[in-house]
Amino acid sequence: MRGIQVIMDDPQLATGLATGCSVEISGTLANSPGREQSKELQAKHVSIVGPADPETYPLQKKRHTLEFLREIGYLRPRSQTIGAVMRLRDQAEMGFHRFFHENDFVKVHTPALTANDCEGGGETFSVATEIPAGVKADPLTEFFGRPVNLTVSGQLHLEVLAGAFKRVYNFNQSFRAEPSQTGRHLSEFWMVEAECAFVDKLSTLID
């Protein structure tokens, strides 16, 4: 997360630099006398690869609210908050995969489009097709011949696959159509699910 401090003895090297610039810097990597970092880059050459207008560049060196970051979706990955979340998600996902592979699970992909409502809540997103003008058809059954929805869980598919591979897991997107705008409800999210065959003791499941 932390960047590296660049030291410039020549003020001319900083000409045109502003928050948001993309730069290429070469110089000497040296031990830093400062307490905030162990190394610093003593610049000999600085070139601006992509300039940024300091008057209009919206992501400045200050705290920005999540609401504001949502308005600049093309820049928000550069913010420290979103950057930290993305790195955390990356490490968490790799940790899941390592754990399951070390315990002899097979990763499988369960379908996002399904006719199943795994949990029976009925809060699913229906998948509809666009029907050409003048054609009489039901957009909810035209393509598949029956109603289809976005998955709420891959559990039913995993239970079938566990009969072949004994231990299976997935890490797939799930969708919930619950009409709630609170922070506890998401319409789209990623979920880890696992199924094991031959588990006959509660202690084994807990372990």
UniProtKB/TrEMBL annotation:
This is Asparaginyl-tRNA synthetase. Keywords: Ligase. It is an enzyme of class 6 (ligase). It comes from the Eukaryota. Its EC number is 6.1.1.22. The keyword Ligase applies.
